[in-house]
Design goal:
Layout: H1 8-29, H2 37-64, H3 67-74
Helix pairs in contact: 1-2
Length: 75
């Protein structure tokens, strides 16, 4: 894991967005609530993919935002 990915706020945002989107996708596919191991496996892999996607977006956002703005907001 990168140092950035060990931040609590980053994991909380990526996990929350991943869970929300996974449940929305599972409901639209008719798999919610999960009733078997196969549906749980689909849920798990969907969540992991979305979690990595949101982690990447947060990492990308920190590259785009100038470091001077981040330093001003933290102090």
């Amino acid at each position: 894991m990168k140092i950035f990915q060990k931040q609590v706020w980053m994991n909380a945002v990526a996990t929350g967005a991943g869970v929300f989107c996974t449940i929305a996708l599972m409901k639209s596919a008719g798999f919610w609530p999960t009733t078997g191991i196969a549906q749980f496996a689909v849920y798990f892999f969907c969540f992991m993919g979305l979690w990595r996607f949101f982690s990447f977006l947060l990492w990308l956002a920190t590259l785009v935002v100038p470091s001077s703005k981040l330093e001003k907001s933290s102090s």
